[in-house]
Amino acid sequence: MYVLPDTEALVLHALRAYLPTGTAVRVAMPQHWAGLLPLVVARRVGGKARDPRFIDSGMFTVEALAASRPAASLLARQARGALLAACRDQHRGSDGYLSRFIEVTGPFMTGDALTAGHPGACRFTATYQLNARPLAARPPLTVTLAADRDDGRYYRAQVVGAAAGPARLEWGDGHMADITIGADPVVVEHEYKTLGAHTVTVTDADGNTKTVTTAPVLPVEISWAMDAGSNFEGVLSATGVKPGVTVDWGDGSPPVTPAVSAGKLTERHAFTADGEKTITVAVPSWKDAGFEGHTASAKVTVRLPRDLDVQLGYFEDDPRKVSATIRNAVAGKGQITWGD
């Protein structure tokens, strides 16, 4: 059977624990209240169970009475601070603990017949909403991250032990997910589109937070574009890279380390050898951010410009006829223009 705690008793217990020594705390206004100053009267005036199993949410009127206006104002503000601290500390009583504080109406001076007959005495009133939870054991709030799929940019977060109710999961890259916590673990997926370490934060209904850090590995994607009219010179483009990346052109020329901006690079190159070449882009390991080294490659067919050796020969029996001997040409079909 689910039994929620006595939230009013918890509030009174917390006020007695957190307010300055000598402050009287009551649930109802005593008949001879003037002899008890300084006095705080706190009583529940509304609210409901947000979850009949785990959360009671009570609305409380808190009155602070003292022998002067400054003293009553200070006491009212101390009472507010006491309840806020008690909720943040998850102050415990015999059957539950406080877990959330919301100020509905801040302290204000109340002038009425109660204090009219007591010169100098003053009363301040405020309204607060506080949550209370039973002491039933609950596992600590944990967030587990695991890479999902093969390319290292998809992550799955599993949230366990959070307070039941609405919660927020922030992925650390400007994106967030509003989730609802229940009895079962909550699993949420996300795709990262930026390099670097990201701090994932979960905040539950009681304001408890848990952070974990992850470092997605974005896939390196490269493309090569030959210049118009060229078979050996063009531009390499790559995404998913970081400073320190190297490019090996596969033609015997020294590797280069291009400039990187926003995870992208462009680099021009003129190949120095014919044939099929493999361009390799290598991203080094980045241990501080949790990255391992990874590479990507692309194949390019290169044809260097050639100096053709062309020799003409004439037929003795008919000088109108000539022959052409061509050396150092690329194998395959070609074209001869005779000039006539």
What does this molecule look like?
With about 350 residues, the protein is mostly beta strands. The chain has helices spanning about 5-20, 70-90, 115; strands at about 25, 40-50, 55-65, 95-110, 120-135, 140-150, 155-160, 165-170, 175-180, 185-190, 200-205, 210-215, 220-225, 235-240, 245-250, 265-270, 275-285, 295-300, 310-315, 320-325. The strands form six sheets. The chain has a five-stranded mixed sheet. A four-stranded antiparallel sheet has the order 9-8-11-12, with no helix packed on it. Strands 6-7-10 form a three-stranded antiparallel sheet, with no helix packed on it. Strand 6 (about 140-150) and strand 7 (about 155-160) form a beta hairpin. The protein is built from three helices and 20 strands.
